[in-house]
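PROTOCOL LOG
Step 1. Enter all chains and additional molecules of the complex.
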Amino acid sequence: MTDAILVIGGGIAGINCAMNAAKYGAKVYLVDDTPSIGGMMARLDKTFPTNDCSICIEAPQMYEVDNHERIEILTNAEVRRVQAGGGIFKIRLLQKPKFVDESKCTGCGACVEACPVSLPDPLDGKIGGRRKLISMAFPQAVPNKVAIDPRCRSGAMRAAGACVGGCAVDCSQCRECPIALCVKACEKEGKKAVTLWQANRNIDIEVKSIVVATGIRNAPPAGDLLGYDRYPNVITNTEFERLMNAGGPTAGHIVRPSDQQPAHRIVWVQCAGRGLGPGRGTPYCSKVCCMIATKQAIIAKEHDSSIEAAIFYNDLKAYGKGFWDFHRKALENGVRFVRARPYVVSEDPVTHNLTVRYEHLDTGELRQQAADLLVLSTGLIPGDRNERLAKVLKIELDHLGFFKERDPILAPLETAVEGIYLCGGATGPIDIAESVTQATAAAMKAVLKN
Amino acid sequence: MPDDIRIGVFVCDCGTNIAGVLNVPELVAYARTLKHVVLADEGKWSCSVDYLGRMQDLIREQRINRVVVASCTPRTHEPLFKRATREAGLNPYLLEFVSIREQVSWVHMREPRAATEKAKDLIKMGVAKAALLEEGEEIRLPVQTDCLIIGGGVAGMNAALSVAAQGFRAHLVEKEARLGGMLNRLCFLSHDRRRMPAARIVETLAARVAVHPNIRVYTGTQVESVQGYIGNYKVALKANGAGAAATVGISTIIVATGMREIEPVGQFEYGCDPRVMTQLQLEAALRNRALGAVSSVVMIGCVNSKNDTRGCCNIGCHVAVKNAVAIKTLHPEADVFILYRDMSLVREEGEAQKRAKQMGVKFLRFPEQRYPEVRTEDGWLRVKVYDLLAGREFEIPADRLVLTTALRGDESVEQVKGLLKVSANADGFFQEAHVKLGPLEFASHGVSLAGCAKAPMFFKESCEAGIGAAMKASIPMKRGYIETEGIVADIDLTACSQCGLCAKRCPYNAIRVDAEQNPAVIKALCKGCGLCAADCPNECIGIVHYTDAQVLAQVDAALEEDPGRKIIAFVCHWCALGGVDMAGVSRLQYPPNARLIRVMCSARVSIKMMRRAFESGAAGVLVAGCEFPTCHYIQGNYAAETRVKRAKKQLARAGFDPEKLWNVWCSAADGPKFASTMRTMARELKLES
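Step 2. Run joint prediction.
Step 3. Record the structure below.
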């Protein structure tokens, strides 16, 4: 009989769940399907309502789980098969290659410097973030190792024109990349950590309980929402968060993607897409966006007090301790809150300045507002892998696509399968403190399971 | 005996990351010339398994008893080298970490000569400190398995059940005559699609509690006194009314005292007309089937909430919708109006509002500056409201008016606050350890926090918080002890003047004063920030691994040569050093004048340390800590800020230029801020070459 626990998802919920269970005495496998733990919080600049620096408070916890003797972190890995019986779960994990030997990589970054190809970052792309084909997820990544973007191995080098001419080898088959500058850079450092021939690896483990902490994701702006696809200066609130982050692609300068000039008139659109027709916008309130916009507006004004910040909202959600004071702080700092529903955005093709036409919800009037930068709060939606994971774990999703509790009132965080528990964004939109609370409770349930 | 000190210095190449800029063989040769150094070695990759093995062999062979590692950054690699040191048979507190990659080679890439000189200084400083290092040890405090839970509501009962399930003993204290707390006053729960009566849920939970052999329930009882600390509390419990208090030995405490409504006496005819009630009073009427016949019910939201003194009540909107639906179910023909400012309904709660609308509940939004007015006329309550959407005023006749009022902590909060030495906000909600990452505990070890005692929450959230708080309390009970790192305060009583300042200043209640006013550090509770030591007027508090002597030795070593070109920078381990590392990782180049001295918290830096640097001729001094409001030690950076202000005055009096004492508050993500501070300092102190 094992006392081990599997925590799926290495965001702030998974980290706290693993940490509490390990401190309690359990062996914990902390699995994340990206190259580093940290989750969404690692990408944030600040946290509301105190404006704490996000990575400053999360990184010590990341190092702590990394150094804990009873926690085994498995990144780039996902759950493929689960077999329940006899009170335990037999689990097969599939770990995808990073093309880097983690036992040798010291995270020095010489390979990253050497890599000739950078592609738009999948998350920061619109605000100019680029990422080398070999890179560290972020500077504080745990494990502090680089990983190769699989696209490097499937022709992105060639597409970017970086391969040497006349190479006859298909990149996906390439065993000795003719450039392989990363390999050479690593060898020059005296290591041989970059290994281009790694394959998928199966890892079999046995645990007594499983905690699903797979988190949540930002809803992508669907179908050219308010000009997002056409206009460079329409971005999402997550992109704005990266824009104001000193560790982000602009080193914390709040500039417009179109011309890299400081943005002076910034408008946040809450519940973006809501009311614009079926399928537009997230069909429920995502709880945290009002405070995110408030935070972003406050920080933007801190960067430059001359910035004109306006938040277009429906119903203000200032539901937590200190949130209302935070809203008032924004008002005192000159942030405008307007009950408004934008319905169309147009752009001056020369200056890329935007005009937002909106309905003022208090008066019903139609008005317009000029903006340098438009920030869409698109809401939070279930992870795109929830469905597959639910199938593997044989648990259910609710009608919104989040993991379902068997009895939220009398058995919170428990699923229909005994021994499988939930916490954090896997249960729906939630803030950090609530995630930590649930994670701690789920850890209690997980260690208590017989 | 100084003769016995045998220091080994291990300098890392980090491939070319360090060796590509710095002349590592020169550093190694230099290290060998330093006092007490018996061995210096160059490693290509010090963190590799091979080299760690070699390091351990050398430590054993050469009988090294102090280790200096000069490599990357302690923030990521110190635990690794500590483990290696321990495995070599040496106390890990005898290791000193010198950062020559993030602080030197990555940030002074174009000045290899100056960079090498800086690295030499850093190694010299590390060696000077290492010579003074003393053994330390993790501190353990035994913890038994009795847990006191104050408050027998939903959170308390859930906590008790989780604690008891592990075989630990839960002492569940409830001041009312029966368990259940606020749940005893509700009709149905929010978010409960099955609409189970709240009474049945209380029964279910209370029955589970009652039959559990490991739970002892004390109803009609209050906590009279609490003495001691985690693992060692003596708690006196007193039954209401007469009777002597019983004392129990307790190891951990969970606070789950709940909340109450603020009655809006004198507002909206409340207290004057019996038909005006709060949501809780409505729930009681629904629960007891005592509402009577109604034809028109009006609810007003945000009563005494979201104003100058108080925030959102967190739960009121959904409670109003739930109760409106309950009234509509009982009296389908009755008109029900919800007058609101913002409908704070999240996630699936929006669906409840849709259902309410389908049942005919009317929602009217009124402006913040224009609350509805109520008067009585012709036996009706008349509610005048300005409907924002319609843009005009309506008058609604009502035979019941329900106020969604603000909430505050239970009346016992003031007492509990004093007993446990914890804090609460103006509304009587307890202050958790950290708004984001410490929602279930207090800053003092051993006391957890659950349910509405922290802030208003729904039933489900209270359950989760109760279970989570039980986990926090159970960890030390399961292990049988708490353990903290050996970086703790140590008071020399022979020099102490019993002023008591240290006990007052300690953010963790880790210093207790006895009857003779002698302070004593409860080491297991001390987190080693050093705030007490820096403020001690008699300088009689040492912090293990960061004693005055050790830090001053670093200052002296740094300023031995050419002090007029150097800046002494005291940097906190958590954020400021994170910013330094971030500047390194980002290869931000800045002038090489600063010599960094790591402290755990900027609050550790005493005026004496700053002053010593100036006395030794430093060009400038920088104190760098976490960006407000973040602080790993609650608010050490605030203490440091006030101390720097005081230091400036003292320095001016002593004839030093106070403008040469700098301050920066830098987040761990803000490499650019640290680098630009360095550039500005070098420019303004005229150190640019």
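Step 4. Note key features.
The longest helix of chain B spans residues 459-479.
Chain B has a mean pLDDT of 94.
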